[in-house]
Design brief:
This protein has about 240 residues and is an all-alpha fold. It is built from 10 helices and no strands. Among the domains are: about 60 residues, Homeodomain-like (Arc Repressor Mutant, subunit A, Orthogonal Bundle); about 110 residues, no CATH class.
Amino acid sequence: MVRARAASSGRARHPGPQELTPLREQAEVTGSSSQPAAVPEAAPVGHPEPGTGSAEARARILDAAEELFAEEGFDATPTARIAARAGVAKGLLFYYFPRKLDVLRTLFTERMPTHPLVALGGIARPGDLAGSLLRLARTLDLGRHESRVLRTILFREASTHPEAGEHLRALRDGLMVLTEQVLDAASPHALDHRRRREAADTYVAVMLYEANAQRFAGARPDLSAAANIISGALSAPARPAPA
């Protein structure tokens, strides 16, 4: 008897997005990052199905993830729900974002940049410390609607996910640098480095608190009053250090 042998093209076939889904689901359940050699975890493989891979589909995935992470938390949101809300196949989601953590990182880096935040032009005016600080807060507009959802995610996940904590620190550092630059440019005299740093630290804390208070419709700090207090403190003569 002659046995028929299946013809082979001699070329390895790469799995498409749909074929990756079971492997990714297993990784989500087990928490293991080990994958077969042909399906590396760190990089997307395969190609989107015709008509499905587009910038618009990627944006829908990020929109859906942003909403769900804010509503339910990062850990409580499975990728299946993100894909369903975005209206895409799970394989396409994994094509763009090999791990769920990559979705979180992309949300922060693309939609909540840490630098540069704003240009200084028109904000800092020499001799007007209080007004310059208030213009900075209004230009940054940290409480604007489109950033509230991301701030909810950022502050919620900062204590449990290093990526969120690092991004929060980078955002605060960017605000500190910007505020110190405004103080230097607006002050009629050279500022003591320590006092400038303390003033910037105080005003950044007030801006972040005011922005977060808008999420809960609660009492909000008076940015104008805070700016006047800081301006007055910086304009007063420095006190000698205690003996």
